[in-house]
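Appendix B.2, paired examples.
Example (i):
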Amino acid sequence: MHLFTPSIPLRDHHQPPDTLPTACALINPHLPNSSFPFKPLAGVGVAFFLLVALRKHLRDSDFFLKRQEPDLRLLLDLVALGTIADIVPLQGVNRTLTKVGLALMNSSPRPGIFSLQKVTGTREITSGTVGFQLAPRLNAAGRLEDAALGVDLLLMNDVDAAMDLAGLLDGFNKQRQKIEKETFEQAVAHLEESGKTPMSHTIVLADERWHPGVIGIVASRLVERYHRPSVLVAMDGEQGKGSARSIPGFHLYRALQACEYLLSGYGGHEFAAGLSIASTDFVSFVKAFDAYAQKVLSEDDFKPLLYFDEEVFFDEISLELVRELELMQPFGAGNPEPVFVAKRVRALGAETLKEQHLRWKACQNGVVLPCIAFGMAPRINELQEEFDMLFTPSLNEWRGKVSLQLRIKDIRPCET
């Protein structure tokens, strides 16, 4: 069961390594001598401001006296796409770039983005549709085939050719989802056979059947399910490539530093990392990684927390409130959708949708509001008695009518 607790700020992770590479120039807002006023830029944001600086230099050098000066604002759709996909905090400059870029995508999408909209059936492009619909299809080519295909799509000017390539990427994404599902089931089977959770502090697994392009996603799903730092390694003969995901309180990069004598290479940050390892060192790595976790993690760290902004009553929720909350968009990492708790509610007319989701009407003190809970069909029996709900209020548009709908994040028995 999850615990609900008030929100805490997200910490940034884009830190340079202790030893910097030898180069003519290093561009990173986190460098000690950097005077850039906003640190948590995505890589695409760094590239954009490099172009801004280059344009200024060329302008000052009279380069554009006989040439047309490029309008870099027309690139902000790509900046928004990369910023959302990189899961950096949507605050400050990131939020500004993303908001303008999303507006550009919706008003005059380039052929590649337009084709992805058509393939996914997306009407309005938001940070959510970028993160869960568009970006996964662009990334699917890199995970299974050639990452250049996603770049090719974004650079295309011909809509028909873009539609063909978007269809190909959509096929790769479906293939990726199938492989991901199989890998997750195999990982869970490994754990159930070995009994490694929840007794161990970590999950570290390897298999020669696994594709290195999906193990990071599967590691994230294992963290969601077991709330343990998780490492999956795709073995290929004597060498393996691994992806790791973590929980609050466990710094992955430091953990890998502690085990670096067993690794061929590694890199990453607090919550996500990659590594390479010889098959002969894997068993030793499993023990060393878990031993490090035993030193730094306590029992409280294994209790998953879901954060909320405020407790509310149903009679405080209105269409006007939701419209006011929408002014804080775009939502994403560092600027999440507002999440609320309503206590002691009852479910009326609960039913399953497509054998995966739940829909019901929630009643609190005589006020009734419709609810949708994606992926929660197996929990329908938890709606028999009074319960507390974690939710985001939203607007549901159907046949020209706009109504309130609560999107459920989680439920729990009422506190006594």
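Example (ii):
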Amino acid sequence: MDWSLFPGNAFSGSDEQVPWMRGGLQKWGLCESLIARSQACRHRDPEQMVLLAERAVAIATELDAMEYGPERTADMRARTLAELANAHRVGDDLEAAERAMRQAVAWLSRGSQDPLLLARIMDLTASLRGYQRRFGEALDLLDIVYRLYESHGDRHNAGRALISKGLYTGYNNAPEEAIEFLGAGLAMINPAADPKLVISAVHNLMYFLTDCGRFHQAQRLLRRSRRAYFAQNDQLNLIKLVWLEGKIDAGLGQFRRAEKSLQKAHQDLESLGLDYHAALVSLDLSMVLLSQGETAEARGLIEEMVATFRARQIAREALAALLLLKESFETEKTLSLELLQAVAKHLERSKHPLA
């Protein structure tokens, strides 16, 4: 872990709050407003999320250090740059996200060393490291984020750090341990404060239960959680629910029901332009078809995926894995369920899940 990114002792610093009743209230308040508006765009408009964060950075640059003090001004610049980095991450521009985050940490080193600001920026850095598949670094950061929030009595954000740790632990090929972290995190958070976080955590808990072959447990939890998905009325979450239903039904041997759910999830993801994730559903569907002896249909789906990835220049590494699968079929004249499962697992781990 490159700890040089983060200045000083992670547990030092002042708890003093940002001064509001000063002459530059309008610009400071505008920064706060732009950050909040940017965060609110995450699930519906990633481009607007970036634009609002960029505007917040521009306003923070104009803040008068003489009026607020150099440390507090540096804090706001660090904060807005970190939020910009997160917006770039959500928009899949990881190079821009890395640049903005390094600038944020540079300003943080000149600031007040506020431990809660440090926790927020470390949390966002952990998310970036997770997207970069640097899971060990993400988990190290989240350990500190958890301790910082816990030491300040903030159980909700401490629990959120455990939920994030569960996610990255699972994607680091330790699903049983991930389940433990997710359960502990869910027990700490305030569901009313962030219902989307609850849905995300529960969904990932069910996903890793499925990954471990604990299909009956996943099914029971899904039945208890279904109403919450519909209460949120989030289109993407509802598609993820149908996809997960298909995976659970497949694990329980309910292949016809699984086929119907996976076909619907595939169509809905394609309609949103989420071709990579639609391809992952196709692999799940291929396994269902193969389990029913429908080898030709499974092969047809794989050929469609290869053609789509080639035409749209999607994920060179993923295309290579699919070509290996296709060539294996052409050589051996049969599809191996084990090979299909291995390729599906590889592709699931090679791109961050749907947010």
